[in-house]
Design brief:
Layout (H helix, E strand, L loop, with lengths): L1 H16 L19 H17 L6 H14 L10 H12 L1 E4 L2 E6 L2 E7 L4 H4 L7 E5 L2 E2 L5 H8 L6 E7 L7 E6 L1 E4 L3 E7 L2 E6 L6 H15 L6 E5 L8 H4 L1
Parallel strand pairs: 10-11
Antiparallel strand pairs: 1-8, 2-3, 3-4, 4-5, 4-6, 6-7, 9-10
Length: about 250
């Protein structure tokens, strides 16, 4: 019983400190704020049972985080728990910049395939091409890594180096490319003139700098069109969202 109470206290502390939980306060008078002691006692007993009798060993943090995820996932499709790593990835996406190589990649039969190098980035300057296969990152063989693990390995502090081992179509042997990481800026806004007087603006997602970028690019389109636009197509297809303030 002492062990169950200890795990219960750990669980309650996690709920109190979990920075990844985003929720809205209930209206005053909507219900009691008292903890459901009996239900929490049941949770502690199940937790203890898993720790003592489950066939595989599971660390406390993993078990508790999975419990929190299950709680929030059961509420609605828009509620969820962000662990520190997930929060870091979201911050990278919404900030629009990170230290890396400038590669858009995908997983292809266990290795990393280059979809495209981004213009002006270390990968582009080093001559990496669409279709190149990355088979090794420094001394780490890519085979068996998830896409997220490989991407995380390629990212890092600007100025640090990484050696990629590349297999290219038409080459008889793999070759190495040494790249120096740099600040990679993700462009969430793309614009062009479709025909005289009419502009097109594509917003791929809402980042912290999206509003400023859109304003500048629309001003440039207007100048190109002789001072003003006769019409504008704003393309938000497949936009997953992002920073609320930027969207507003």
């Amino acid at each position: 019983m002492i062990r169950s109470i200890r795990y219960l206290l750990v669980f309650l502390c996690l709920l109190a400190l979990a920075g990844g939980i985003h929720t809205t306060s209930a209206a005053e008078g909507s219900g009691s704020a008292e903890l459901p002691i009996e239900e929490l006692r049941l949770f502690a007993e199940i937790f203890s049972k898993i720790k003592t009798d489950y066939v595989e060993e599971i660390d406390d943090a993993t078990l508790l985080q999975d419990a929190v995820r299950g709680m929030l996932n059961g509420l609605d499709p828009h509620s969820g728990y962000l662990d520190p790593e997930s929060l870091r990835e979201i911050n990278i996406d919404t900030r629009g910049e990170f230290g890396g190589l400038g590669l858009e990649v995908t997983l292809d039969d266990g290795v990393i395939r280059v979809v495209t190098p981004l213009d002006g980035t270390p990968a582009h300057k080093a001559g990496l091409r669409s279709g190149d296969l990355i088979i090794q990152l420094d001394d780490l063989v890519v085979k068996g890594l998830s896409l997220d693990e490989a991407v995380d390995r390629m990212r890092g502090r600007p100025g640090t180096q990484i050696v990629l081992t590349i297999m290219r179509e038409g080459a008889t042997q793999p070759f190495e490319v040494t790249l120096k990481r740099a600040i990679i800026q993700l462009q969430s806004v793309r614009t062009e003139v479709l025909e005289e007087g009419f502009g097109y603006a594509r917003i791929s997602q809402f980042q912290s700098g999206t509003a400023v970028s859109l304003r500048r690019k629309l001003e440039h389109l207007a100048e190109t069109a002789g001072g003003s636009l006769a019409g504008l197509i704003l393309d938000l297809r497949n936009n997953p969202g992002g920073v609320l303030d930027a969207a507003v």
